Amino acid sequence: MGRTIVIVGGQWGDEGKGKIVDFLTEKAEIVARYSGGANAGHTVIVGEKKFTFHLLPSGIIHPGKLCILGNGMVINPETLLEEIDVLKQKGYFVGEHNLAISGNAHVVTKEHIALDKKEGGAIGTTFRGIGPCYTDKIARRGIRVNEFIKQKNDFAALVRPFVKDTYRLANQAISQGQNVLIEGAQGTLLDIDHGTYPYVTSSNPTAGGACTGLGIGPTKINAVSGVFKAYVTRVGYGPFPSELGSAKETEDEAKEEALSQEDILRANRGKEYFIGKVLRKQGREYGTTTGRARRCGWFDAIAGKYAVNINGLSSLIITKLDVLSRLKILKICVAYEIDGKKTTAFPSDMEQFAKAKPVYQELPGWDKELTGVKTFEELPSAAQAYLKRIEGLLGVPIAIVSVGPERGETVFLRPDEFF
Ligand code: GDP
Ligand code: IMO
Ligand code: MG
Fold it and tell me: CA Rg, the chain, in Å?
């Protein structure tokens, strides 16, 4: 029996979904995206090679896999063709044999991008035309890929061969017992329905979106795994209770490559801004799509538990644990204080959420670099305790721990959760 597994972002995006999907692709026959568009930036690092995917699923560099762009996506044909070209230059050929695009996906136009540039600034969007394109889709005046490819121009001719009935390919694969890996983009807290509205994207990156965005039924999904950083980052505006230091990074700091000993000392003296700086520099927290510095904060278990519920997560994937090394004390947000009252429930009223102050539990950190760690037992005991605490708070087992950006820098705790 094959399995169909959804990988979703558990936070505000950039959790490392690309790395994890690449890691899991080996045993899948199909890798599919279902929502969003080129607002996504998924990084895959294999040896010396670095890939950044915006529209193509992260499985595309694996030979013999079929990659699908589902009907729930919004696709800019120019960006897609550029992405295909960049891969070709690196020696990876994308053709009808390994890429299928849904004719019912919507097309992002120049007008969408212009409108996003005009109006998206207040939210801090990626300016990829995402909001305006989904607006036209919902208003029933959008252009779908099926119509786009009937136009007489070069872009249309280049996209045409890829267009297939992708719902059929996905369902056939499932009924034939193949393994299907579904790659979420964005994250739970950016979901148009469940995220921190209006500071969200315009689609449903949560697990339900995988069904509508690909045309497969909920009964076909065997497992949903949520990717979380060992801390939290956010790009764009909007409330972020566990954010470390609200001060913006200065231009000089942005240019600094490495972290100084001084910065670490300041962080370990409890200076919030410098703890944030340690995370930003050690984690290279600069956006894949926009290059913007990401806002950094402590792991938020209240938002994490919310993501468990919204997605029905069956397992957790914790990435970037290595980035926490050298911090003497780590904190986890275990409750919010809202209007003087403590709560462990994630409020669905965003006015309440904007007022949430974090209540922290402190845990000891570790000094050891985690590069090269392959098993849970090899992790420092403080890192083991930190992971166990997250597992306890979220109530779902951790299946994978990532300790570096490279494919192999991965601790695979529960292979049985996947294929
Ligand atoms: P995605 O959008 O969820 O695919 O994540 P991004 O690719 O936008 O951002 C994650 C960043 O962290 C990328 O630069 C990855 O190469 C990097 N990364 C992923 N996992 C790890 C990890 O475990 N440790 C470190 N240090 N970097 C990681
Ligand atoms: P991946 O897939 C992080 C954020 C933007 C902005 C908000 C709305 O790489 O995790 P949009 O352009 O979608 O209208 O912007 O959503 N955002 C992301 N943040 N990772 C992403 O994708 C994002 N996609 C959108 O920064 O705050
Ligand atoms: Mg990203």
Answer: 21
